[in-house]
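Kindly draft a sequence, keeping tokens residue-aligned:
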Amino acid sequence: MRWPFRFGVRLRLLLAVTAAVAIALAVGVMAFNVLLAQRLSASATSLARAQAEVELGSLEIAGGKPVAPEVPDGGRLGIPVWVFSGSKVIEEPKAPRSIDNAVASLVGGPERALSVDGRVRLYSLPITDRGARVGTVVAAVSLDAYGETARSALLGSLILAVLLLAAITALAWWALGRALRPVARMTTSAAAWSEFDLDHRFELGEPYDELTRLGATLDALLGRLAASLRHEQLFTAELSHELRTPLARIATEVELALKHERTGDEYRESLEAVSRSTAQMTRTVETLVAAARQEAGLSRVSSDARDAVTRAVAETQPLAAEHGVELELRLPPAPVRVGVDVELLAQIVRPLLENAVRYGRGRAEITLLQSGSAAVLAVVDDGPGVRRDEQGAIFEPGVRGSAAVAGAEPGAGLGLALARRLAQSAGGEIDADQSSSGGRFILRLPLG
């Protein structure tokens, strides 16, 4: 059901609080007045009974009949009292006919109370002599004062309830405004931070109420936005890093082809080089898209890790020959199935091989094996290795180790960062181990 009017949270909460308080006050006023009416009725009955007992105690029995004492008309306490000997009245105050008729109905009956027209309460007591009933005493109490008390209490309780409802409504409006003001500030701040600076956080500590849970939720939201933005920036940096080399090759081949006349075979070689670079660019883009799908949980593929490692080694052979480094590959005889696409796994392995080729002195060993529920790939070279304080930093985008700086190796410091991110997107991890004999990188991927 859609309401015709839309109210803000503060007004909706205020209406809910006001309605709840109004219901509670109505129930309280009703219960109070019902209990008060019962107490007043019991009090009137007690007063009438007390007067009847006083009258009964003042009577004398003569010849088996009650004799009324000489008292002023209207009873000893100013309360009308009737005294009957048998069914004959021996003491009778002046009263309306309706009351006289009601009193007559009580004569000879048991001890009990009776209300007449809601204005008079009668109470009858039997008169006995040596166990035999000889008469009846009936006392009457006016209910006008009790009714006035009940009406005054009802009016007072209604006025008090209205005043309390107004006060609670005003207090609730103020309290809700104070309570929701931080929410409005947090919402405004979160909107500004998400637009200009995603590194700010509310940092309200461990959530313990609605506001701290909201702060934690907004912190998580900002964190996801920041992570998404960083992934986007990282994707752009990785894409430019991976496409830089093939684009440079294409540009070089095209420039040479335009500047110098060549034979048909030379043009063919040049076009083949351009084709290879274009294919490399296509694989790079497809690999990064596959990594994005893997991170989003959209890709569920399985492949033999031996195929991907073999492909990565083959693609790295030209660079290894250029640096004079021999690549030694050791593969298990049985397939090693992992939950990663072949091209994506090759893209993960390739930076590790290129790193070993660039910094190795003459030999790099690549070993693939299955260990428990994981596939483990070790890439070991005989270069300077990785210092302990650099084992985590070299996987950060744009960070290069001391060996790269000392050797003046070209690069943007994104290869290892890309490899680790791609590995993590597949549920794996890459670590750099300290080794006295050279660099040692370990890739672990869950079996698929």
